[in-house]
Amino acid sequence: MTVSSALSDQEVAAIRADFPILGRRLEGGRPLVYLDTGATSQRPRVVIDAMRDFSENHNAAVHRGAHTLAGEATDAFEDARAAIAAFVGAAPAELVFTSGATGAINLLTAALGAASAGRGQDPSHRFAILPGDRIVVTQAEHHSNLVPWQELAARTGAELAWLRAGPDGRLRLDDLATAINARTRLVAFTHASNVTGAITDVAVMVAAARRAGALTVLDAAQSAPHLPLDLSALGVDFAAFSAHKMLGPNGIGGLYGRIELLEALPPGLTGGSMVEIVTMREATFLPPPHRFEAGTQAVTQAVGWAAAVGYLDALGMERVAAHEHALTARLLEGVARIDGVRVLGPADATDRLGAVALDLAGVHPHDVGQYLDAQGIAVRVGHHCAQPVHRALGVVASTRASLGLYNTAAEVDQFLGALDQVRSYFGVGR
Ligand SMILES: Cc1ncc(COP(=O)(O)O)c(C=O)c1O
Which pTM was predicted? Predict the structure, then answer.
């Protein structure tokens, strides 16, 4: 990652003023220190306002109905698609709205499952995963990019293989040669781990998958909010991400697919809004992206999400990334000075995002979280929906501070001070 000019203190102060929730006072008048953006981000006023305006003035179901509101809602929905697609380096038709990253990956596994169950002469049979084929994942995956592949492997008789995480949480790329074999049909991997923060070398993964003729699926849930993202330049075949982690609302996310793949892929879900002609016996399907959007769409959320990417775009993702990079470096340097802290992930900020999970000499993460909460500091505790990587790193759970563009150096220092108090309270290092 290239580090460009970060946001100034004045800009961060102005950004904070855009987020109503950051002005909230907790019990005892304590200001909120929100270090849980990895789980879900907070929303700027423009996102809240865009959704309110849509609800108050334009709400209607899209792609059906001939009335004025239906037309306005459809325009708003498709404009949102175009804006979000451009933000991630995709064409509008390459962005399928889903319920989130989890919804996107499950939609893809359902579509691949349908292709696998089809007949040999079906055009979609090129996607079929057959007994003895291989699906490759990694030990660093969120359960959302692991369990659906386990299920697809079980349904198709495919074998599941994975790259291991090394002691610093980074993927062991030397595993690629053995994990990806001639029967590998698909490689699914995270762009950045929500536990270790490690950024994956996408180019190496894509090159290895392509050599085997395998499809690639990128979990961009953690990268889309924090890095400039150009999915077509990365060369992945599919990608998944969620609005609620990138300043948008919950209940919506995206499945990216290269257009020639989406055109050939059968639908994963069926029903209204995705068909052309329906008889009592069969149906024909719309082209992508609508073929993959069965049911009434989350239009209000799409409008809010578009406002969120507009907000991020206006700041510039290079500068957002540079600001968070500086905070991540400060956080990592600070925790390295606290006795008994072990970071589950790379110890320095190179090629790393600001999700910093740590173990405090075996003190239960729930105790750490409770102590921090009493000081107004919100962190995540537990396994963060990523049990295998915790197990690989020798723990069952951790405490995770995760940074966002609205965090400040003072908040990082407050976290470090509070963590040191927890250490002292539990007698670590005595
Ligand atoms: C790396 C990663 N992938 C996938 C997900 C799932 O996202 P969602 O719950 O929004 O579907 C998350 C959420 O924490 C994540 O961090």
Answer: 0.97
